[in-house]
Amino acid sequence: MTRKRPLDPMNGITLQMMLERLVAHLGWDTMAQEIPVRCFTHDPSISSSLKFLRKTPWARTKVEWLYRNERRRMRPPAESASAISDVPEVDSLELDAPDASDAPDASDAPGTSEA
């Protein structure tokens, strides 16, 4: 039995993950301009913002909307980027081509005879 992948791209992303990624991508100043709430404008922190957003559905909806819109422009999380950097770089591909010395001569071909 195969499991179907959920259609919602937000599945598995917590409010804390959204907030941390938005702050890393936009910064607190831009967040405060986009969503002018006190937890973003005065002494902002992740913990105080989480407390406010969990108690205030309209503000949480705005943060989710902002995250959905900015998600395409965000860099991948650090753990994904480090996994990509572990792959060794390849300068060029060297194909195993047969050497010219290994190629059969035309005189060795069947049906030809030297007489």
CATH superfamily of one domain: SAP domain
How are helices and strands ordered from N to C? HHHHHH
CATH architecture annotation of one domain: Orthogonal Bundle
The backbone outline, from C-alpha atoms, is elongated
The major β-sheet equals: none
User: In whole angstroms, how far apart are the ends?
Assistant: 72 Å
Tell how many strands the DSSP assignment holds: 0
Structural class: mainly alpha
Percent of residues in helices: 40-55%
Give unreliable regions as ranges. none
The first-level CATH class name of one domain: Mainly Alpha
CATH fold description of one domain: Transcription Termination Factor Rho, Rna-binding Domain, Chain A, Domain 1
Count the DSSP helices. 6
User: Into which percentage range does the β-strand content fall?
Assistant: under 5%
Average pLDDT, all residues: 78
Descriptive overview:
- The protein has helices at residues 15-26, 28-34, 38-41, 46-55, 57-70, 78-85.
- The chain is 48% helix and 0% strand.
- The chain is built from six helices and no strands.
- The protein has a domain at 15-73: Orthogonal Bundle (Transcription Termination Factor Rho, Rna-binding Domain, Chain A, Domain 1), CATH 1.10.720.30.
- The protein has 115 residues and is mainly α.
- The model has no long low-confidence stretch (mean pLDDT 78).
- The termini are far apart.
- It is elongated and about 90 Å long.
- Helix 4 packs across helix 5.
